[in-house]
Amino acid sequence: MNTLLDIKGLTVAMAGLGRPILDEVSLAVHDGEAVALVGESGSGKSVTARTALGLFPGGATVSGSVVVGGTEVVAAGPGDLRRVRTSVASMIFQDPRAGVNPVRRIGDFLTEPLRRIQGRSKAEATAQALELLGAVGMPDPPRHLRQFPHELSGGMLQRVMIAYALTADPRLLLCDEPTTALDVTTQAEIMAILGRLRRDRGLGILLITHDLDLAASVCDRVYVMYAGRIMEAAPSAALTSVPRHPYTRGLLGSAPPLTGPMPRLAPIPGAPLGLAEAVSGCPFAARCAHVVPGLCDATTPTLERHGDSQVACLRAAELIDETQGEGLR
Amino acid sequence: MWLRRVGAMALTLLVTSFLVFSSLYLAPGDPVAFLVKGRSPSPDQLAAIRHEYGFDKPFPVRYWDWLTGMLHGDFGQSYQLHASVASVIGSRLPSTLLLVGLSTVLIVVFGVGLGIFGALRKGKGVVVLVTVGAAVPSFTAAIVLRSVFGVRLGWFPTVGTGSGFGDELHHMVLPAVALTITFMALVTRVTRASMLEELGREHVEVVTSRGLSRSTVIRRHVLRNALGPVVTVSGLLISGLLVSTAIVESAFGMNGVGSLLVTSVDHMDFPVVQAIVLLVVATFVVVNTVVDLVYPLIDPRVRAA
């Protein structure tokens, strides 16, 4: 299987911070595969996705490797970056209202890369923009080309953003919380469009979200991230049936179930680790119910294979027996 | 829409004309004292002068005469120069307009240009330059420019208006620079701040991540979006240029509308002062109306409102 995105040991650090923004992150997306990257705000999931396009935080020290469609983008020159951005991967952003230039018409926005990058004529670019707007389910493409962003709803604008990403005819679509800024019915429509595009075009998708249930239901594999580190990586079914990391279990336990009686929700105590806070040992130790003083705060866990999953927890083996004994989810 | 704007413009001018006319009559001193130039005329002669110039009529009548006269193109007679105000101002207007025009070009080209440069460069050089520039009053700049580029280097004439377009333009360079240093600095500052704000926007990251070249992104998404505040501030500054010519034209011994305003105030030549002040206000109103009309083209979101 062809690997579209291969991140290995990626560390992104910035002077003046207590911990790296990303710490030894490894992640892969294969051709046609949908992979989710889940975590709380500030966990580094958006930063990770942006590295695939060579967008690193200004002034950051970067080590490790990010290979996109066979091209290394860490310390890549403008030519390589341009190749990746214009023909391999493109990104859908969280807030379409902020992501579309407010003073230009939708038609200008969509045809600009087609004309300036793909070198299409004006007529060809317009025809392709119409086709893409149809493909993302816009009701009246010719009219939308003449409209300004403020004349469209958030859901419609997110479709425009998807169409924009597709102008590159990419093999990898990076979706950075594409539904967070939208209302619930629109969220479902956007996810349906992404699912259809994935099938029709054989796209690889990296979905960034904080919604573990959504991630598990639409993606093949899920990475769970915390404080700049991957805590657990597993096939979706394995992750929801046998969550192995205490953090993953905490995430699942703090969201209400969609069916059945409403149990008492168990939020994870404490707050996510700030960028200014230094870490020793496991970054989740301070909030973990299973923490062993002297062990968890001294040794940094690395990803180890347990069953179908990879887990970065020093007590993973014991905890699996414990949870199965208790019959928890 | 258009009709309302033109109506508002006319109303503004009417109100200002009243303020201008009445404020000068509240000013201390009596134009008759200037007209008799220190001689001691008899009360009869004084009454005759007052009658000749219409000073004996009640205030509303004088205002009405002045207003209706202007509508027919008659701005009255200059006390000082014994000629019609229209011809006195008309003969000085071309050189002042050339100065204002050249200054406008300098403000837009160098102000905006330096602002873009300052936004794209990391260094603080432009910020320092702008802070210094904004703090230099035009009369100080005039003295320094004349001594360095006029006297020491001899590149530009230091006094007068010149004859023929090329020569006039040559004479205008130093005055225009003196006039615009502060304004250029302000436009640079606004352009730089507006560009930096746009550079940090997510839509700029979107087009960058799509692989558009940096120059395209800067031109079509950063500069284009940053234009709003730049146009507003430039409009305000450019409409204020006419007033500022008073200082610079006096400093460079130029025979323009600005220096005319200064001498007319000195000599209590009320008709000339009134006409010039009204001209200044009219420029303000017209330029700002133009800016208002241009704004929706820059930002389509304004159209809906």
UniProtKB/TrEMBL annotation, chain A:
Domain ABC transporter residue range list: 7-252
Annotated membrane topology: Peripheral membrane protein
Location(s), subcellular: Cell membrane
SMART domains: AAA (SM00382)
Primary location group: membrane
Record key words, sorted: ATP-binding, Cell inner membrane, Cell membrane, Membrane, Nucleotide-binding, Translocase, Transport
Taxonomic superkingdom: Bacteria
InterPro entries: AAA+_ATPase (IPR003593), ABC_Ni/Peptide_Import (IPR050388), ABC_transporter-like_ATP-bd (IPR003439), Oligopep_ABC_C (IPR013563), P-loop_NTPase (IPR027417)
Pfam families: ABC_tran, oligo_HPY
Molecular functions (GO terms): ATP binding
Family: Belongs to the ABC transporter superfamily.
PANTHER family attached to this UniProt entry: ATPASE AAA-TYPE CORE DOMAIN-CONTAINING PROTEIN, OLIGOPEPTIDE TRANSPORT ATP-BINDING PROTEIN APPD
Database matches in NCBIfam families: oligo_HPY
Official protein name in the record: ABC transporter ATP-binding protein
Protein species of origin: Catenulispora pinistramenti
Taxonomy of the source species: Bacteria, Bacillati, Actinomycetota, Actinomycetes, Catenulisporales
